[in-house]
Design a protein that fits this description.
369 residues, alpha/beta, Glutaredoxin, 3 domains, five-stranded mixed sheet
Length: 369
């Protein structure tokens, strides 16, 4: 029995550490996923707090996992883990059951293991149910769990190290981009190819119900049994009857448009030679005297730099006094696509046609080559 408790303890501890590390590699990704849930619940006011919530949650998973393995403060951490897993089980259950009006799933994934290991909501829900059972077992038999080290100072040392690492690692990834890039805009990827529908895509199948009215009575009809012209059309409903598979491109809504609204994505990504794309998510908090602007300006004086932003007017105002950047091509793009491409603000890409050769956050622009 003692061996079984040890195995459960290590399994749960390692799983929480792994889950926290994967998400700590990209805290903004979890932040955006939280915003999806808040939007579904009509609670957009929490958007400003999701990054802080993501950082704290990721850190807690790592710290709690370490505490469980070393057996430190088991009463406290076992109950905290139970509360956390109950919350996670609710979220993954909601993500699994929530649907759009057309019957399609509202959430493609729950973000439990970030973008590196995307799980369907149902898979995540089953995983959380298993953890709920295992953590409950640990709570009932926590008195049988002894600290890993006889010297309490060693246990405290590992907890302190976990605290420093979990927050320090996230500070690094937020400032310098994720250590492991699991997004479709990672180095080496062909952006044009990833904008296409996969070759093995199976489309969703839909049916339609039409509502017609006659003499004050409304009635629904299928597409194959529409009424005659004496009925007046009222509404149409789209119903999902068969979910497709792999039927979305890896990169969506990445459409580069000029000030006139002309889509020139293909033209930009098919050009020959090396060029750079500066992704600017927002101009908030940025000054024209910031060091990174001077670094990119020096680059733009020698190389082709294209500025891509969801706020073209604000970007134009920011660079208006900069001789090089004010003359650079300025394109607009969907904000969500920019959030995926730029996990910092700003991010500079080095491109060869549609291939991403390299990328840097503003904190690393000194290494531009």
């Amino acid at each position: 029995m003692k061996l079984l408790f040890t195995v459960i303890r290590w399994f749960v501890g390692i799983l929480f550490i792994f889950s926290g590390l994967v998400k700590a590699n990209d805290p903004l990704g979890l932040s955006y996923k939280m915003q999806e849930f808040f939007e579904a619940w009509g609670m957009q006011g929490f958007h400003h707090y999701t990054l802080a919530m993501a950082v704290i949650m990721n850190a807690f998973e790592i710290i709690a996992g370490v505490a469980l393995i070393v057996g430190w403060r088991m009463k406290l951490f076992s109950w905290l883990l139970l509360l956390l897993i109950v919350f996670f089980t609710f979220l993954t259950g909601y993500a699994w059951l929530a649907t759009n009006p057309d019957g399609s799933a509202k959430f493609a994934s729950c973000g439990c293991f970030g973008d590196c290991i995307p799980l369907y909501p149902f898979q995540s829900f089953l995983k959380d149910l298993l953890l709920l059972v295992l953590i409950t077992v640990l709570i009932f038999f926590r008195k049988n769990i002894k600290p890993l080290f006889s010297k309490n100072s060693l246990n405290v040392f590992f907890i302190a190290a976990a605290v420093i690492f979990s927050f320090g690692f996230q500070w690094y990834t937020l400032k310098y981009l994720p250590v492991v890039d699991c997004l479709p805009f990672k180095k080496g990827n062909n952006l044009l190819e990833l904008r296409k529908m996969p070759a093995d895509a199976v489309p969703d199948k839909f049916d339609y119900l039409f509502t017609y009215e006659k003499n004050g009575t409304k009635q629904e009809f299928s597409m194959l049994k529409l009424p005659d012209s004496t009925w007046k059309f009222v509404d149409r409903k789209q119903i999902l009857i068969a979910k497709g598979k792999n039927n979305e491109p890896k990169i969506k809504d990445f459409d580069l448009k000029t000030e006139a609204g002309v889509d020139i994505t293909e033209h930009v990504l098919q050009q020959l030679g090396t060029y750079y794309i500066l992704f600017l998510r927002t101009t908030e908090g940025i000054k024209s005297t910031d060091r990174w602007i001077q670094q990119v300006s020096a680059l733009a004086a020698q190389k082709k730099v294209i500025i891509v932003t969801g706020m073209p007017d604000a970007a134009k105002a920011l660079f208006i006094t900069n001789p090089a950047l004010s003359q650079s091509i300025l394109l607009s793009c969907d904000v969500t696509a920019i959030k995926t491409a730029a996990r910092a603000n700003p991010v500079l890409y080095k491109m060869e046609g549609a291939i991403v050769l390299d990328k840097w956050s503003s904190a690393d622009f000194k290494h531009i080559k």
